[in-house]
Amino acid sequence: MYATLMYGPGDVRYEQVADPKIEKPTDAIIKLSATCICGSDLWPYRGLSPQEGPAHMGHEYCGVVVEVGSEVKTVQPGQFVVGSFCLSDNTCPHCRFGFPSACRQGEFMTGAQAPYARVPLADGTLVATAELPDADMIPHMLAASDVLGTGWYAAYAAQVREGGTAVVVGDGAVGLMGVLAAAQLGAERIIAMSRHADRQKLAREFGATDIVAERGADGVARVMELTDGVGAESVLECVGMGESMEQAMGVCRPGGTIGYVGVPHGVSFDGQRLFFKQQRMLGGPAPVRRFLPDLMDRVLKRAIQPGKVFDLVLPIAQVAEGYKAMDERRAIKTLLKLD
Ligand SMILES: [Zn+2]
User: Fold this and answer.
1) Is 291 exposed, middle or buried (0-12, 13-18, 19+ CB in 10 A)?
2) How close is the Cα of 71 to the center of ligand 1, in Å?
3) 72 Cα–ligand 1 center, Å
4) What predicted TM-score, i.e. pTM, was given to this entire model?
């Protein structure tokens, strides 16, 4: 088959590779219904995280099981499944505590920007639906695999509550999903920090009540003004840069909580500042597997449409253009079609 390989910064190719096969008895092979490009795929694409090339790309996936290893019990060929970008056994102490993203056997999914993929730890990672979903459900189901699950975790980690106030820092795909999650979790006021008109529009659609276009100190001042000088009790940090973390800490009220899901690049903290700010923080790779059954259920009930975050759809053979469009910010998130 053909698959997506990254040879180095800016160099993505769709080329012939060996078909994936069952390597361990706990593996499953799936035929992907659709796949996509993640904001985190841009770190190596921009040369900001070193990577040994050529590397198989893709960790967001949904599709139909075609083969399972001898020890796989919970999924079978013919079933439609969604899995997390973090592979997990769902049985170790960390998984049982709700953090499959810290699974003792865990690793990150890879190789999903392809027509077929091998999913290790299939029993603990994949969630099957009762029936094959309609075709129009596929983008929404695919979003649950990472981008929605990560935005959801940001809202959970920020302790978004019914009637509360939430600020979302970052208007990338994850930030937009954070807005959707905060709305679903009942936040009454959702302030989205966004400078781009198209993203502001989508943020409103997903439930933002206020938009703050200013950044840095001006952005903080604007949020404080909107909250009568108090700040928000829930802040979702969805970027991972020093400036965005500064903004998050600047708008979080004492006793409030920051959920941070952007992989930190060049972020550091001053201990005393953290001490006197009296803010709670929880972040890291999202334990998507914990949220998947609920998220898939919300999608199937048509309560949410997270797939609206895909604003560019390309055949997978044009994957290189998909990366380019996201890198140049011509697209928020690219869905790759498989026929
Ligand atoms: Zn585990």
Assistant:
1) buried
2) 16
3) 16
4) 0.95
